[in-house]
Amino acid sequence: MEHAEYVYTVGMDQSELDECLRDGEHGILALADGDDAYAVPLSYHYDGDRILLRVSSQGDGAEKTRFLETTDTATFVRYGALNGDSWSIHIQGAIHPWSEDVDEATLNEWFPPFRIFDESIEDVEFTLYELVLESVVGRRTTSVSE
């Protein structure tokens, strides 16, 4: 591949990881059930110690719920790109319902407004899930001189 264009990337340090995670609201959660994969965009809250994901469900048969129950290790991806520069963060770990009570004012502070598609508001319920930060790896583009 001698004529393929490329850019160099480097690992992100803890302060870069924290900044990108604190500045964001959305990412992609990847789950698995045997040989089947499922990925869904979700809103998240990062407080420096944990990632909380706001997951909606419409009834017991929701696909997200099924995959959440069968996934041992989930992956959450947050990324960005602008003017040729890019970065990505992959977080892997166990995922489980978060057991602490949170009032609506705090949820509104932690998460952006929920996007309603073709559901009625009364039918949408939320569960918070914690993704355990077992592995947090970030990479970003860099110049050759770095």
Question: What this model shows, in words?
Answer:
With 146 residues, the protein is of the alpha+beta class. The chain has one domain: Pnp Oxidase, Chain A (Roll). Helices cover 17% and strands 45% of the residues. The chain has three helices and nine strands; from the N terminus they run βαβββαβββαββ. It has a nine-stranded antiparallel sheet. A hairpin with a 2-residue loop joins strand 5 and strand 6. The radius of gyration is 17 Å and the shape is globular. It starts with 7 loop residues before the first strand and ends with a strand. The model has no long low-confidence stretch (mean pLDDT 89).
CATH class: Mainly Beta
- Class inferred from helices and paired strands: alpha+beta
The secondary-structure element order is EHEEEHEEEHEE
Largest sheet: 9 strands, antiparallel
Q: Give the percentage of residues in beta strands.
A: over 45%
